[in-house]
Amino acid sequence: MKPGRRQFLKLGLSASAALFPRIARGQPAARVVVVGGGFAGASCARALRQLDPRIGVTLVEANPTFTACPFSNAVIAGLRELSAQQFGYARVAADGIAVARATATAVDPAARSVTLADGARLPYDRLVLAPGIDIRWGALPGYDEAAAREMPHAWKAGDQTLLLRQQLEAMPDGGLVVISAPANPFRCPPGPYERASLVAHYLKTNKPRSKLIVLDAKDAFSKQRLFQAAWAELYPGLLEWVPLSKGGNVTSVEPATRTLVTDFARHRAAVANVIPPQKAGHIAEAAGVADKTGWCPIDPITFESAREPGIHVIGDAAIAGAMPKSAFAANAQAKVCAAAIAKLLAGVTPSVPKLINTCYSLVAPDYGISIAGVYAPAGGQLADVPGSGGVSPATAPRATRAAEAALAEAWFGTVTGEVFG
Ligand SMILES: Cc1cc2nc3c(=O)[nH]c(=O)nc-3n(C[C@H](O)[C@H](O)[C@H](O)COP(=O)(O)OP(=O)(O)OC[C@H]3O[C@@H](n4cnc5c(N)ncnc54)[C@H](O)[C@@H]3O)c2cc1C
Predict the structure, then answer these.
(1) pTM
(2) Nearest CA to ligand 1 atom 35
(3) How many whole angstroms from 375 Cα to the centroid of ligand 1?
(4) Is 131 in the pocket of ligand 1 (CB under 6 A)?
(5) Of 53, 137, 307, 397, which is least packed with CB atoms within 10 Å of its CB?
(6) Cβ atoms 330, 36 nearer than 8 A
(7) Looking at ligand 1, which atom is closest to the CA of residue 133?
(8) Rounded-to-integer distance, Cα 342 and Cα 178, Å
(9) Cα(325) to centroid of ligand 1, in Å?
(10) Domains defined along the chain, listed by start
């Protein structure tokens, strides 16, 4: 069956030209379908075309515009506009990639085809799933899609980001803001603490009589010592972190009153940001590549699913061992996966990769910190390469922190330029 004509017409392409850009010069050497046009998927699609222009690549993406999460905490704090987070797919399409604006709803691994929401089917020789995350609705009692309109998660950038910002702006000075952080694993391990920092910055500069409590389902978190030292310096008395062992685990929420309930207390917030438990994007489960954890086990050399041959999973959806779920990691995995697919299609054994990740966080607009790591396959997983990586120094002049904040911004410009520019 042919793919949805409407999706291609929206892009001004005929269905056949869109699906098989090189058809006039012969059939593509192989067909790769990539589902999800984020940091992982769009990057993988482009890398595949660069590695072997004979491969016919189709990128299936549900939205016409991608809204990036990195730096979305700055949008919430009023330091940046959402438009600075948004990117289109024109340059991706200009690489000869058929961009299908559609939601993939099912995968038939035996027939090697992906079904789109309108019923169209895309055949593939290799499939890459890069759907990011979905919220585990219902895993936190009381937290469903309706509750997210009262107590936004803002863990997928877009309307939720703006809703949380608007709630902070509407809150009177002296209000209580509560952020709840989930247990591992979840998208962007330092993200809740960067968010707490920038919300604290907003409160300090705009509503100084207010208070921020972070309720945490963990006792430890990424870059913890650096964050806590900066909080003591920048936001004393304003920001309180409550770990699991001190009653931080949120057991239910009551959206009507914006109340977060723990085993020990009830916190009635003026603004409540609930960062809920997560899982791989729904299509991963539909394709049979997610395990009972909700995430997708992969081969650390090729990112091929451990459950379904011919399907690769990259980015937040994958279980990538020691590698965190970050845009930096998603982009690195995309290139490794593309190289492996190009080799597999050519009948060549893929090389053993080394991958790098760096996560920057802003503690204030001019105060950045980072953590870096290097990863390689070991014992069937991606493991830390001993002696590599590290975090920003525990003590450093403010000029160093400002330089790291500038590096964070530079990284964002580079990665979004590479993926979408
Ligand atoms: C507040 C916050 C701050 C962050 N800060 C940083 C940071 O500073 N640095 C960093 O490296 N990372 C950061 N991250 C993490 C980063 O956003 C993610 O790790 C990254 O987006 C993962 O990329 P991905 O491609 O796997 O998923 P995504 O970027 O979410 O892309 C998935 C895409 O797939 C599409 N999709 C999903 N399902 C389907 C389907 N069935 N059919 C069609 N399309 C589909 C979606 O529309 C989406 O475009 C942050 C995250 C948050 C929440």
Answers:
(1) 0.94
(2) 36
(3) 20
(4) yes
(5) 397
(6) no
(7) 30
(8) 47
(9) 9
(10) 21-62+102-136+279-352 (3.50.50.60), 147-278 (3.50.50.60)
